[in-house]
Write a structure and sequence with these properties.
heterotrimer, A alpha+beta (544), B mainly alpha (307), C mainly alpha (318), B: 307 residues, mainly alpha, MetI-like fold, 0% strand, C: 318 residues, 11 helices
Chain lengths: 544, 307, 318
């Protein structure tokens, strides 16, 4: 059935750096908690071999995240980065960073975690011939182009990428067993914040000796170690007792069970045979039925993701700023979030997520406020009277709101607005990447790391990796570049905010809403919190 | 007989080739790059996409791809998915689950269907007959996804009588999904056996048996039933194949880790090797089942001869 | 699963049983009458037949002239009235998007019926032509057609439809006609072997009949034999199959829409409505129950008709 579009659903919500093991998320003391308990939580099928640098989708991240601890981890409440494996990350010019590791940490096979565990892992992930999904995260490090030469005509072209001249980035240098130095090719003030993302995890020597054996039985340095996996059904992990971090779990065994559909998982959650599910399906949200089904077992948390409508700037009439403003102002966000999402979404007032460090309220201003009259004015100014298309994949529960948005614009502006569903996420993404969209389209973003930079640079800078609509404003580019070079994070944040304000005049995309994720836990879990990256904060879990 | 079986087995070869080719080409023609959706909202690095295409021969013409696939298949290698899982492993894991589900459905269908059919066939035009007629008509006209959904909601969530999903795919755990899966065919079996029974009741040999003074139970149990069951068994046999591939909706609703969900996901993510492998196995099962059914009919009905 | 292959197999078996009956020919009574004349007399006397015929006429009327039944715009959605229960304004209430359920059910009839009718026509036409040719000629054409049919029958229906439709659904903006055509095509493509087998076995049986042998001995051309002698005698089983299949196909359309690969925006059909309403069954059951009810009743009507026709055409069952 269907409705098991789980794999694509995963993809939609992919690119999450989860920080399931954040510190400080502990509950009100562990009174009579069962520390040897086993719990089962919801997951989707991991789509790639279980190697941190090669998994950027949710199903795989949920497995790998508890198994690996990076240099920094993000707080389970506030999403703020704190040092985990790193003793310190120091820089004077935002270009050269000196990273010192904590001592005494071991991988699950007993070998020590050293500076080379990181450097080797990063070099391996960035190395072109290894063809990892996470390679591009290292593109800011000096020497990336040598280990990962660009394909001259893209993946679709007949030419192959030239062979790399070396397999080690010149910007990485091991100083001693517990210190290494990272040199970036250009100043990047928020680099330390990004380090909590999964692809920056260390890898043990065992990986480099025998990759196939590692994929069959991954070895990490995190609070949980790998036990077993039945493909298509479940992955079992258990507590790593020699874990040195402060975010060790208060239970023992963790089973990540694969469900084909959220609806069936929800049924299990209600009946108590599933302990946690991080996002309830639409049929549970409908009419807030989850309140009666789960009662006190509902878990809510604002999470670091948003939903937007992107424009194909390469296609008329979407290159018309007045039309874009008219469309944005014709969407009744308030009503849609209430009626379609039952309040589990919060209307957005800008392009940066409110939970992010550096967020400033109201950046989008009147352009993100429903105002039929002003919308009509802008429409009249644009002079457009034709058809408007809204494209979206429908496999991640996007049909409902997309239809409602189309209706809202249609009813407000009197334009012929059509929602055009695409059946699979892969097909949809391919068209987006190839700049072949025929109308405006659904876009969403989940923060890789909680920095204002992550909401702007990759999406709106000319030529940026995820600027699929080809938006380009030289003034905004210049401001973003200035922010990158800023001496400290404070100053950088201020400059990024300026760039966001400048962008607002162009309405480069329509911010719709951010998410107040509604999760559910079983009776057994006395405490279970959701982290800002939309997954269970494992360190917080207590079993009664 | 031996020659007949041999001929039927030989006929399976072109069917096998046809099926694999057809499915392979169709999956190949499904739009969308299989690796475009693998990296979430961002583009996958070019190196990743190129390497994956290389590994799965996606840049070759489809005929060459199919040729390589077939060569490997003959050697017993079903290929791997893009996440590096052996297709044969997945088939070995999911196949028994779906087979179990199909068997449960088959038993349900046979027991309830035949019983209802026999009862109503013997009481021609009585109250029971009308009841069976109406209820089967009703069952036929409701789509399975409605039945499954309602059963899960009412009995699983509201009343809590059953577990809303299948936790362990054992025979016992699959009874509810089996019932749902069987509901449609059950109605057909009932109607088929009813028609068959009421036809045979008027046959000459029954009249002869009656005239001979045989007891009613023996006439019905031995003569009528045996002869009436031939078309029913034919139907049941081919239905097993239909169940195995047709369980997509049911498996999805009850989260049964079987072939259905796997195929559905594989089509959407363009896992050609996986889809082709699974469908090929299903078609072979179907062909073998039809052969078995034909042979079974010959056993039941001595008039049928194969040469 | 609303698997038409099951429906088909059921019908086929019934049909096979009846081929022998058809061969026997109708018993002559006072006035010479054909098989179909007898059947018609039989049918007229059955209330089930009249019930199904009137239901079907009503549905056809809905499909042909939806504007007669409602003036509301089925495409106008207003979230302000989302999920409101049935009232005097909207007899069937509003769904989650604030669409008028009654207007949509009425306007959705057309797509559902068109899919059912066209898919049946396609199935029966392809199947009958190939079946009768294969049955008549035998030899290698028969072998080829039969093996191709084996392939298609062996591929489970829904599975095949998923593969075919995913291929055809070259995403993006498809016109309503194209969306409907795709669904019709994929159903016909996967179902014709059933009609083919029914027709083929009927033709094989009829070929052995003395009157056909006589016609061939008298030098009638193959075309004449097929058209004048075989076809009229093989039509009955296929006719029965087609009425039952029609109902089944309407249900199949709903299942495909449920899986997200069948009909979709901007086409409105009962299946599309059921798919959209299923998540809200606990808060707005009316949005699901009305289209599901129409679907059930329509399928029921066609199945009943098929049933009545089958019994009427089969002298043994009278």
């Amino acid at each position: 059935m269907s409705r098991s579009r789980s794999s694509s659903l995963v993809a939609t919500t992919a690119a999450v750096a989860l920080a399931a093991t954040a510190c400080g998320g502990g509950g009100p003391g562990g009174t009579a908690a069962d520390t040897d308990a086993a719990i089962t939580i919801f997951n989707t099928e991991p789509e790639n071999p279980l190697v941190p640098g090669n998994t950027t989708e949710v199903g795989g991240s949920h497995v790998l995240d508890p198994m690996f601890t990076g240099l920094v981890e993000y707080d389970g409440d506030t999403a703020q980065p704190t040092n985990a494996m790193a003793e310190s990350v120091e820089t004077t010019d935002s270009t050269v960073f000196t990273i010192t590791l904590k001592q005494g940490w071991t991988f699950h096979d007993g070998t020590a975690v050293t500076a080379s565990s990181f450097v080797d892992a990063w070099n391996w992930t960035a190395h072109g011939p290894n063809a990892t999904q996470g390679a591009s995260f290292f593109s800011q490090i000096a020497g990336y182009d040598e280990v990962h030469p660009a394909d001259p005509d893209g993946a679709d072209g007949p030419l192959a990428a030239p062979a790399p001249t070396t397999d080690a980035m010149s910007g990485l240098e091991v100083v001693d067993d517990h210190t290494f130095e990272v040199t970036l090719s250009a100043p990047f003030s928020v680099f330390p914040v990004t380090l909590g993302y999964e692809v920056y995890a260390p890898l043990p020597k065992a990986f480099f000796d025998d990759r196939a054996a590692f994929e069959a039985h991954p070895i990490g340095n995190g609070p949980f170690e790998y036990v077993s996996r039945v493909v298509g059904q479940e992955v079992k992990l258990t507590r790593y007792d020699d874990y040195r971090g402060s975010d060790g779990p208060k239970f023992k065994d963790l089973t990540l069970k694969v469900y084909q559909s959220r609806e069936s998982a929800y049924a299990d959650l209600v009946s108590g045979s599933l302990d946690f599910m991080e996002e309830l399906p639409p049929n549970a949200l409908a009419g807030q039925k989850y309140q009666t089904d789960l009662g006190e077992r509902v878990v809510q948390k604002e999470t670091l993701n948003n939903q937007t409508i992107a424009f194909p700037f390469y296609l008329a009439p979407y290159d018309n700023a007045d039309l874009r403003k008219a469309l944005s102002m014709a969407i009744d966000r308030e009503e849609i979030t209430q009626k379609i999402f039952e309040g589990s979404r919060i209307p957005a007032d800008g392009w940066v997520h409110p939970l992010t460090k550096g967020y400033r309220a109201g950046q989008c201003g009147e352009y993100c406020t429903y105002d039929p009259e002003k919308a009509q004015e802008h429409l009249a100014r644009s002079g457009y009277t034709g058809e408007i298309l809204l494209e979206s994949n429908t496999d991640g529960g996007h049909q409902e709101w997309a239809e409602a948005v189309a209706n809202s614009i249609k009813n407000t502006l009197g334009l012929d607005v059509r929602f055009v569903p695409a059946t699979s996420f892969g097909d949809f993404r391919q068209k987006v990447n190839a700049h072949e969209m025929k109308g405006m389209y659904r876009a969403g973003w989940i923060a890789d790391y909680p920095s204002i930079e992550n909401w702007l640079n990759p999406l709106f800078r000319t030529g940026a990796s995820s600027n699929d609509g080809l938006y380009s404003n030289p003034a905004v580019d210049a401001k973003l570049a200035e922010a990158d070079r800023a001496a400290d994070e404070e100053q950088a944040a201020a400059l990024y905010q300026e760039a966001e304000k400048m962008m607002a005049q162009d309405v480069p995309s329509i911010p719709l809403w951010t998410q107040n994720t509604i999760a559910g836990r079983s009776e057994r879990l006395t405490v279970a919190k959701l982290d800002p990256f939309r997954s269970l904060d494992l360190a917080s879990v207590e079993v009664g | 007989m031996g020659r007949y079986v041999l001929r039927r087995l030989l006929q399976m070869i072109p069917v096998f080739l046809g099926t694999t080719f057809l499915i392979y080409v169709l999956v190949w023609a499904v739009p969308g790059d299989p690796f475009a959706g693998k990296c979430g909202e961002r583009d996958c690095p070019d190196s990743y996409v190129s390497a994956m295409r290389e590994e799965f021969n996606l840049d070759d013409p489809v005929v060459v791809q199919y040729g390589e696939y077939l060569l490997n298949l003959v050697r017993g290698d079903f290929g791997r998915t893009s996440s590096g899982v052996e297709v044969s492993d997945r088939i070995v894991e999911t196949f028994p689950v779906t087979l179990r589900l199909a068997l449960v459905a088959l038993v349900v269908e046979a027991v309830i269907g035949i019983t209802a059919g026999v009862v109503s066939g013997l009481r021609n035009r009585g109250f029971l007959d009308s009841l069976v007629l109406v209820s089967t008509l009703f069952l036929i006209s409701i789509p399975v996804f409605v039945t499954g959904y309602v059963v899960q909601l009412v009995f699983g969530l509201q009343l809590g009588w059953i577990s809303p999903t299948v936790s362990t795919p054992t025979f016992g755990g699959l009874i509810v999904p089996g019932l749902v899966l069987a509901s449609l065919s059950m109605a057909y079996v009932a109607r088929l056996s009813r028609a068959s029974i009421s036809e045979n009741r008027r046959a000459d040999y029954v009249r002869t048996a009656l005239a001979k003074g045989l007891p009613q139970s023996r006439i019905v149990g031995v003569h009528v039933l045996r002869n009436s069951l031939i078309p029913v068994i034919t139907f049941l046999g081919t239905d097993l194949g239909a169940f195995m591939g047709g369980a997509i909706v049911t498996e999805g609703i009850f989260n049964v880790p079987g072939i259905g969900g796997l195929v559905f996901r594989s089509v959407q993510t363009k896992e050609g090797a996986m889809v082709t492998g699974l469908v090929t196995v299903l078609v072979l099962v179907y062909l073998v089942m039809t052969l078995v059914v034909d042979l079974l009919c010959a056993v039941l009905d001595p008039r049928i001869r194969y040469e | 699963m609303s698997d038409p292959s099951a429906a088909a197999a059921g019908a086929a078996l019934g049909a096979d049983a009846r081929v022998t009956a058809a061969e026997g020919g109708p018993e002559r009574q006072d006035r010479p009458r054909g098989l179909f004349g007898d059947a018609w007399r039989e049918l007229r006397a059955r209330p089930l037949f009249w019930i199904s015929v009137s239901l079907i006429s009503l549905v056809l009327l809905l499909a042909a002239f939806p504007a007669l039944f409602t003036s509301a715009d089925p495409a106008f959605g207003d979230l302000g009235r989302s999920r409101e229960a049935p009232s005097a304004d909207a007899w069937f209430g509003y769904d989650n998007q604030g669409y008028d359920v009654y207007a949509r059910v009425v306007h959705g009839t057309r797509a559902s019926i068109v899919v059912g009718v066209l898919a049946t026509l396609g199935t029966v036409l392809i199947g009958s032509v190939l079946g009768i040719l294969a049955g008549f000629h035998g030899g290698w054409p028969d072998a080829v057609v039969s093996r191709v049919a084996d392939v298609l029958v062996g591929v489970p229906f829904v599975l095949g439809a998923i593969v075919v439709l995913s291929t055809l659904n070259a995403a993006g903006s498809a016109s309503a006609t194209r969306i409907v055509a795709q669904v019709v095509l994929s159903i016909a493509l996967l179902s014709w072997p059933v009609a083919m087998r029914i027709m083929r076995s009927a033709a094989v049986a009829a070929k052995q009949q003395d009157y056909v042998k006589a016609a061939r001995a008298l030098g009638a051309s193959p075309r004449r034999v097929i058209l004048r002698h075989l076809l009229p005698n093989c039509l009955a089983p296929v006719l029965v199959y087609s009425t039952i299949a029609l109902g089944a196909f309407i249900g199949v359309e709903a299942t495909l829409s449920y899986l997200g690969i069948g009909l979709r925006q901007p086409v409105v059909s009962w299946g599309v409505m059921i798919n959209g309403a299923k998540d809200y069954i606990r808060v707005a059951p009316h949005a699901l129950l009305f289209p599901a009810g129409f679907l059930t009743v329509t399928v029921l009507a066609f199945v009943m008709l098929g049933d009545a026709v089958r019994e009427a055409l089969d002298p043994k069952l009278r």
